[in-house]
Design a protein that fits this description.
Blueprint lengths: L1 E6 L10 E4 L17 E2 L7 H7 L6 H13 L2 H10 L4 E6 L8 H14 L1
Parallel strand pairs: 1-4, 2-3, 2-4
Helix pairs in contact: 2-4
Length: about 120
Amino acid sequence: MKIKIKRIYEEASAADGWRVLVDRLWPRGVRREEAQLDEWAKEVTPSDALRKWYGHDPGKWDEFSKKYRAELEEKTDELTKLLESCPEKTMTLLFAAKDETHSHAVVLKEVLDEQLKQ
């Protein structure tokens, strides 16, 4: 399985495969019927406290990544379920943040890729 990340504001594509929103909050300006989602995986997103603390501050990225990984270690069942639910060869994790380099989706993709290798 191949896992990709993509901003939800980008146009949907057949190459996306199974489209999963990985934001806890619904993205601004996106109508639900136009999102073309297959899943909304709120349970694997950063906690509200962590999300608010981070505030998309690149200076906190390293610490955020460690803390989010620690949260994900407590959610192995949810991660396994997400991977096993994917009926496609490709899963695209969708997120709303403008900064694609410092998005929680980057960390989530790394963790899912690691889980696939086990």
